[in-house]
Request: fold
Amino acid sequence: MALQLSNTQVKWLKVAVFVLALLPFARLVWGTATGAFTDPLAEITKISGEWALYFLCITLAVTPLRRLSGWNWLVKLRRMVGLFTFFYALVHFIAFLWFDHFFDVAAMLADVVKRPFILVGFIAFVLLIPLAATSTNAMIKRLGGKRWQWLHRLIYAIGPLAILHYWWMKEGKSDFAQPILFGAIVVTLLALRVFWHFKRKPQTVRA
Amino acid sequence: MLFKRNPNGIDLPYPSEITPQEIYTGRRSFLTRMAATAAVGSGVWEMANREAFAQAAPGQKLAARANVALSTDEKQTPFKDAAGYNNFYEFGLDKDDPAKNAHILRTRPWTVRIEGEVNKPLTLDIDGLLKLAPLEERIYRLRCVEGWSMVIPWVGYSLANLLKQVEPTGNAKFVEFTTLADRKQMPGLGSGVLDWPYVEGLRIDEAMHPLTLLTMGMYGQVLPNQNGAPVRLIVPWKYGFKSAKSIVRIRLVSRQPRTAWNDSAPREYGFYSNVNPNVDHPRWSQASERRIGETGLFQPKKKTLMFNGYDQVASLYTGMDLKRYY
Reply:
């Protein structure tokens, strides 16, 4: 019943996802280079932040979706979408360091400490770094599966921090529709894992 | 240093003589684009509104004498940016929403009621407002609280001209400005971002200050709807949101009025909201700004000036703690 894909199909799927995932970045480059963005600095910051959040949700959705659908090949896409989460978060962070502080690291850090809104976003970004750094097969081997898994549970902190950052950003305009939507998505995806973890007999994934 | 000096103050050029060619051209391509959007974008319903669109279309010239003494000589923001990048939540939350949606606003007939603590309350239509005092063109810096800025040639006259007509009483300590709130014409009113109608306010001495401009046009023409047609306020030393758009009522009152943004987020938007590089917004610094059309990726942002560079208003706030009254 479950949709199965051959290795070749998965390979092509990965190529397709990779290209699609770069489209928002291409839009940033295009919009900035052509002058299509009226306020490019604001636009780059906004779009990169939004896509970091979208990819965070996509990454978190892989395991539950795989479990519910039996599409085991989904796991082969997880590392890539996870790294795209980091990529867009990195662009978002660089935009902040570059546009807001023109690479003055001391001023940037002062800003981080001063504003809770920025602080939570910054912590979420910093916590993503070890996850991205340990994404290779070699690193998984070096850490060992168990420890690697423990480390990657940092996502339980990163998800809510990212939502809080987004929430506070939208708070100024009392515009909570999006933060509520994405908050619900992240909470659901994380809660599903907790639920499955504590179920006495974990449901075996159908092959 | 900031202002062009005019030695005699009388012999001033018309704006058509000083508005650069590129701005006129930009205006035309903007119009074409707007028309194309209206025609292609949304079909029959849109077509039904074409008449209103045509009637309200920007481009109608508005002659005015350039007030060089009160104008900056900084590079003007391209018309397409000033008319395409707007915060006017009555027409949607995104910056390009007002330009897309505001064409359905009917700006004629339009009346403004001036009332409250005055001896001679007055209701004026747009023609009455346009005739009340000689129109001036003033090129002002506009600083948005969000951290971006523009340089825009506005057309209007000092609000004081109008306020003097209605003879404020001794109780008139503040002035309240109310924006139209009509669900039929303003799709953004469905959102709960603000408690409509949009209300802004000034202290009476701020409202009477010669820099405070009652504005009917920009770039030598009638205000585009998305910029607050047919009549708006421009208070150049305050963050942009203090300058109410599409005004239907001006009320002189004895107490500080409630204002829309202060109601919504008092910690972020104070009643005074003077441009002040030393008072941060809770979520970002106000020390610098992105000048639209100029600030690129490869140079630091422009330093924001106290009172947006309009030092002549400093005396209004003598002895006031501007960190407390932000």
